[in-house]
Amino acid sequence: MSQRVALVTGGTGTIGTEICRQLGAAGHRVVATCLPAEADAAKSWQAAQKQAGYDIVVVPCDLADFEATAAAIRTAVQQVGPADVLVNVAGITRDASLRKMTPEQWHAVIQSNLDSVFNATRNVIEGMLDRGFGRVISISSINGQKGQFGQTNYSASKAGIHGFTMSLAQEGARKNVTANTISPGYIESPMVNAVPEEVRQQIIAQIPRARLGRPADIARVVVFLAAEDADFITGANIPVNGGHYMS
What pLDDT is attached to residue 194? Predict the structure, then answer.
């Protein structure tokens, strides 16, 4: 069983929760970040995880702010130790067609989805390189691969994540620091479940596997990539979408 420290940004969300649980079950000491405004709710989340058998440290953090991210990671290091595994999960949507998209909608998504990956990774990468071990796993999206109407901001941010990953993979390879991307398809979540039933069924009809993905489908790949012996996989983008988009 691993005793590595795993930092999961956005770890209190739907996919993040399952990632935290599976990393914990694999023996990692897990730290999850949450938005500062959600700190109280995160305490309840943390208690629920503990009751379920998962001891997860929670650190509030505005990942769109570099200095705030640095401070939160210093807090995590003091409580648990330096991160050996970083899972970049945090992200938002602000959908609109480009002709109607405001600069605020554009910048909010780029900052939350792409700047956050830089902010978190930049603050752990030096330690990983110095120690000769690191796993950086970033959650992109099927729509970062194929695009999606009304999501120029989201698709750009998610495509940018994999460009970042490929370059980081080259920088870290000789020091046993891997970097990989996971691109989920449509996953069962409050956001997807809020879509009208008729539309949701139309989406499922386009998926060869004939179902929505589950958070566990993503978490299993994270645990695999975080493993000690996954060191020959780097710079990859692994789609987990039930065959919805193949490239």
Answer: 84
